[in-house]
Amino acid sequence: MYKIEALNDIVTRLGGTGGYKYEIQALNAWAVLVGAAGDYKYEIQALNAIDKSKGGTGLHKYNIDALNSICKAAGGSGLNKYEIAALVFIGSNVNYYLLNEFIGAKEAYSQLKVGKTATTSIRVRRSSDNAEQDIGFVSGSIDTASLLAFVGIGDGYITKWYGQSEVVDARQTTALNQPKIVDAGVLVVANEKPALNFDGVADFLNLNSGDILTTKNATFFIKLTAKPVVNKIIIGNISSHFLGFTSTTNIRFRISSVVLDFAIPEVTQGQLITITAVISDLTTNVGARIYVDGVESTTGQLFTGVTDDFTYRYLGYGGFVGSYYEGKILSYYMFDRPFSAQEISDFTSKL
Question: Could you report the per-residue pLDDT of 291-348, keeping only the tens digit for each?
């Protein structure tokens, strides 16, 4: 039950007048924050938008549980107390974009609309006649209806994965090397979400349009289905710079001549996980940490004596024979700073 005192506090802070009077002007101010249209109109659509953003189900279902979770997420105190902080949280998060909360992504590729200014998700080639078409977003995710209508009963291949941050698009102009997103008219999915399928034989994407990227202060996030066998490389450049699996319980990270193996909880083939790799410049060494699903796998390690940058240009390929990744990739991000453990946990929970 929402106490009148809490409602009045909201009214006062939104410019309403009168003791304990919940005026239509205050409601309208809130409605504007959550995207309702019309003067002084507090529409059910606005309520529904709030509920859906918090995981509520069913059209126009506005549960007390959803309200309470918003309040708690916004720092409200006391069970079911709907404070002004919750209103501010709603206003900034109904149209939520991941990259507005986590600032500074240098690379961001996803089937979800994670950047406010992003308009296009992918460019796809259909197998029937090799025609290509850009595919945008609908309701915050890739427009699968347009994608499937364009591809038809054949296969759809990625020629471009549009970047939603500073670095330009990931591309593949060679048909033989293009990951698949539609297979015989059926959308490729992982856990019911659209994904790019890398065949383990020749598929990969050129990050940053193929230009070499370098860093020694970075956090990488890759959401994928696991292929935990040796030389299945997730990101890389040449044989001396890569990140990938070696077994069901190990991830290998290499910079120059130094190889670090990180023990991880056992994963099975096809298991959907998020891998996070962190590197940090420690002047005389480069430090590294590996996380699986937001949890650090083992204690961080040092690339002893390595002061070189980590260089990379490929997603799904290590730059050497037999190093193509086999599995599905849903999203990939790179930030040019080391994330804290809490940041990694928070970011992973929202992928």
Answer: 999 999 888 899 998 877 888 989 999 988 889 999 999 999 999 999 999 999 999 9
State the pLDDT confidence band at 69, using cuts at 50, 70 and 90. low
* Side-chain-side CA neighbours of residue 36 (13 Å): 21
Q: pLDDT grade, residue 43 (50/70/90)? A: very low
The DSSP code sequence of 113-134 is: --STT--EEEEEEETTT--EEE
Place of tokens 């990951």: 179
What is the C-alpha to C-alpha distance for residues 314 and 323, in angstroms, rounded to an integer? 11
In SS3 terms, 262-322 reads as EECCCCCCCCEEEEEEEEEECCCCEEEEEEECCEECCCCEEECCCCCCEEECEECCCCCCC
- DSSP conformational letter for 242: E
Helix intervals (H) in 14-43: 24-33
